[in-house]
Write a structure and sequence with these properties.
single chain, Immunoglobulin-like, 33% strand, mainly beta
């Protein structure tokens, strides 16, 4: 903004700048689903929901991969997946599914860690 033509005053600094702060950021979070394992030969979908705090007008991309926790690939507890996942413009969530394999071992609850 610029000031000019003062009456009964003088202008020392006649220009000012207004700033519009962008508050349209989107933060991504991921759910921590719980499921029943089942016995040997069974498998079930472990659905992780990735959610953004605000929709975006542009495609949002993020990398993901499964990682061993107490559930491991070596024990065949789940199937590894990885990739780059888009969230389309205007959408705030997307599902990523991990196939979990059952076994009949008596063991504690197992987990695989969150996506990167």
């Amino acid at each position: 903004m610029t000031l000019s033509n003062p009456v009964n005053a003088s202008i020392l600094d006649g220009s000012g700048t207004g700033t519009i702060i962008n508050d349209d950021s989107a933060i991504i979070t991921i759910s921590s689903p719980v499921m029943v394992e089942g016995c040997t030969g069974s498998s079930a979908n472990h659905v992780f929901v990735v959610t953004m705090t605000n929709p975006s007008e542009a495609i949002v991309l993020f990398n993901f991969n499964t990682q061993d926790g107490t559930a491991t690939l070596a024990d065949g507890d789940y199937q590894f997946i990885s990739g780059i996942q888009p969230i389309p413009p205007g959408q705030i969530d997307i599902n990523i599914t991990v196939l979990a394999n059952g076994d009949c071992f008596i063991e504690a609850d197992e987990y695989l860690s969150s996506f990167d």
